[in-house]
Specification:
Blueprint lengths: L4 E9 L6 H19 L4 E8 L3 H10 L3 H18 L6 E4 L3 H16 L3 E11 L4 E3 L17 E10 L5 H10 L4 E2 L4 H9 L5 E2 L1 E2 L16 E2 L1 H6 L1 H4 L3 E2 L4 E2 L9 E5 L3 H15 L7 E4 L2 E3 L2 E2 L10 H8 L1 H11 L6 E3 L1 H30 L16 H16 L3 H22 L1 H7 L1 H22 L6 H8 L10 H7 L27
Parallel strand pairs: 1-2, 1-13, 2-3, 7-14, 13-14, 15-17
Antiparallel strand pairs: 4-5, 4-6, 6-8, 9-10, 11-12, 15-16
Bound molecules: ligand ME8.
């Protein structure tokens, strides 16, 4: 059996409704999942919600409802947003589900039995919003080094995971698997953190009631929310710690865990150490993307600058939002969100470049060729067989590297080349003087559009189907990817008729919304 490509997003906290940051990771994962499926791979794309811990309990208390009622409500806003954004996850896991909790308990017990988890006492600085303990030396201005908020001293009896015992093995793993810590520029920080010495990790809480209970083997304790959450990646596959087997075979190890940079360390230090302790293979790659600020500021409720993906999608369209997020910032770097930047990209690249090219060429074909795509010339001067091969190779390879921005730039260059070519050839004049030359020009450009639609399909799954229809193709761009990418066949059916529709990306007014 061939291995299923397994990719994951973080499971998001349900203390609040999702915003554009959560949408970002999920859209990136969805794009990759779609591309892999298009390329014929079996895919399991997992997302979900992280529903335990003091932070969630506090949000529920403030709302005057039980934590369970709270999570049941907020989880729906995640499901709803994923539906709106056209996310094609294959599974959605909630940490309050029985299928998850029972694996968490079984793992805890197994690691207690093996001596990897032991009982001790804990005292340190705790940041409630981040659910993290910090030593005095890690604090910045006596505040949480991650979020800058006040911390409180917490002491409790706790079970500890022997993280320190895995320090050397982790370093060896990083050395032997250079693809594990991605992007590579984030690797040194993790290596030096591990080299600096790992402390055993407190993995149970006696003060936090809203968590996976550890009765009867560690009475009075619940599982530390991060230890609980990381396990989602295997509980969703029906992992049985007793046998090491998975109900869903041929899926583990994960091909990639997509995470934001602030939780890279949890995924590259704690998680692999837990897996080592369990004797389970490690994920192939953990990829940390950067953080979005909004108009230069950290996104936060108190600043009132939280970007609601519903609103952006309503104004620009879901596909344009998906495009913008992946196009604007190289995946792995930090970026800044602004309406101005979105408007700029939308008008320049979607309305003026791609949309305009489609519109003008289909117009000319309808007017001058009775709506029929002209016959293929013997060779292409815009994209010959070798250039097509190289182009498709770079798109394939770009998606593989999660280099979404590069892929979208490659596609953008293609459509601008198409527009430039039309400007130079002036087919609207040529039709009067040299009909075969005009036909050739139009053919060359519809061919580029067909290629662009296929390569863009994972990013803009709806609009590209519309382009496909307008080009007179049947099915969806997915159906043609193997023919184009593997066989270099970008031809049309003889006499294929185009079907121009309304503009896909109407130009937007640049005046600001008040
Ligand atoms: O950390 N820019 O959940 P969370 C980019 N439950 N990405 C952002 C972002 C921003 N401004 N804000 C959020 C948790 N994200 C844990 C994870 S996994 C086992 C447990 C995205 O709700 C990004 O993917 O705080 C980040 O890592 C994640 O949301 C954090 O979501």
């Amino acid at each position: 059996m061939t291995k299923t490509y397994f990719l994951t997003t973080p499971i998001y906290y349900v203390n609040d409704v999702p915003h554009v940051g959560h949408a970002y990771t999920t859209i990136a994962a969805d794009t990759l999942a779609r591309w892999k499926r298009m390329r014929g791979e079996k895919v399991l794309f997992l997302t979900g919600t992280d529903e335990h811990g003091a932070k969630i309990a506090k949000a529920a208390e403030t709302a005057g409802v039980t934590p369970q009622a709270w999570t049941d409500k907020v989880v729906e806003s995640f499901r709803e947003l994923w539906k709106v954004l056209n996310i094609t996850h294959d599974d959605f896991i909630r940490t309050t589900e029985d299928r998850h909790e029972k694996v968490v308990r079984a793992i805890f017990k197994k690691l207690m039995d093996s001596g990897d988890i032991y009982k001790g006492a804990y005292e340190d600085w705790y940041c409630v919003p981040c659910e993290s303990f910090w030593s005095t030396t890690q604090l910045v201005d006596k505040k949480c080094p991650d979020c800058g908020r006040p911390v409180e001293k917490l002491q409790e009896e706790s079970y500890f995971f022997k993280l320190s015992a895995y320090q050397d093995r982790l370093l060896v793993h990083y050395d032997q698997n250079p693809g594990f810590l991605q992007p590579a520029h984030r690797a040194p920080e993790i290596r030096s953190f591990v080299k600096g010495g790992l402390r055993d990790l407190s993995v149970s809480r006696s003060k936090v009631k809203w968590g996976v209970p550890l009765e009867p083997f560690a009475p009075g304790h619940t599982v530390y929310v991060w230890f609980d959450a990381l396990i989602n990646y295997v509980s969703a596959l029906g992992f049985d710690p007793a046998t090491g087997a998975f109900q869903k075979p041929d899926v583990w190890p994960a091909d990639v865990h997509l995470v934001g940079k602030e939780i890279f360390r949890f995924h590259t230090v704690i998680w692999p150490a837990m897996l080592m302790a369990l004797g389970v293979p490690l994920p192939k790659k953990v990829f940390a993307h950067g953080w979005w600020t909004v108009e230069g500021e950290k996104m936060s409720k108190s600043t009132g600058n939280v970007v609601d993906p519903h609103q952006v999608a309503a104004e620009f369209g879901v596909d344009a939002l998906r495009y913008f997020l992946l196009r604007e910032v190289p995946f792995g770097s930090d970026g800044d969100y602004s309406r101005k930047a979105l408007l700029g990209r939308y008008n320049a690249e979607l309305a003026n470049s791609l949309g305009n090219l489609l519109n003008r060429v289909l117009n000319l074909i309808e007017k001058n060729c009775a709506g029929e795509i002209p016959a293929a010339p013997p060779s292409s001067d815009l994209l010959d067989a070798a250039a097509l091969k190289e182009w498709t190779r770079s798109v394939d390879e770009g998606y593989d590297r999660l280099a979404f921005t590069e892929v979208l730039q490659t596609i953008q260059e293609l459509t601008s080349r198409g527009n430039q070519y039309v400007n130079e050839k002036e087919p609207w004049k040529l039709v009067k003087t040299d009909a075969p030359a005009a036909a050739r020009c139009l053919y060359e450009v519809v061919r580029l559009l067909k290629l662009a639609a296929v390569a863009l399909h994972p990013v803009m799954p709806t609009v590209t189907v519309e382009i496909w229809k307008q080009l007179g193709e049947s099915g969806t761009p997915s159906d043609a990817v193997a023919r184009i990418f593997d066989q270099g066949d970008l031809s049309f059916s003889p006499g294929q008729k185009v079907a121009k529709g309304s503009p896909l990306f109407p130009r937007k007014d640049v005046s600001p919304v008040v």
